[in-house]
Design goal:
Elements (H helix, E strand, L loop, with lengths): L5 H24 L13 E3 L7 E3 L14 E2 L5 H4 L7 H14 L16 H7 L3 E2 L2
Parallel strand pairs: 3-4
Antiparallel strand pairs: 1-2
Length: about 130
């Protein structure tokens, strides 16, 4: 497994399992995920002789798990498809609109693209930028 030591493999496995279980709990309870940049507070005990603890040693923050805002002026159609509610056709329309009209000056300008209304804009507003 990528030439990791046995202990490193165990840490990766435990962190991944914790992330998956935590995501499921959040979904089931209907709670939103932590805000970007908010540190995740957790402690993991490994079955090692000295009771090795991983207590905020990694400094894992949610901003490393959540990608930065997507620049709709430079994103490819494939990248745009990762936005909620944006499929291949709509992503193609965004790229086409940008090629015909130039850069977006404001994120609200994406409303000019056929197929993007207020509701869809509301779903992606916090995920896009026009830097």
């Amino acid at each position: 497994m990528f030439n990791l030591t046995r202990q490193e493999q165990l840490i990766v496995l435990l962190l991944t399992t914790g992330l998956i279980i935590g995501s499921i709990v959040l979904i089931v309870r209907g709670r939103p995920a932590p805000a970007a940049g908010e540190p995740l507070d957790f402690t993991v005990e490994l079955p090692a002789g000295d009771g090795v603890k991983l207590e905020n040693v990694i400094g894992l923050k949610t901003d490393r798990l959540v990608p930065d805002k997507m620049n709709i002026n430079t994103a490819t159609a494939h990248e745009l498809e990762s936005l909620p509610g944006i499929g291949p056709v709509l992503a193609g329309r965004i790229v086409e609109y940008r090629e015909e009209n130039g850069r977006f000056n404001d994120t609200r300008e994406i409303l000019e693209v056929s197929g993007i209304g207020e509701r869809k804009y509301g779903d992606i507003e916090g995920l896009i930028t026009v830097e």
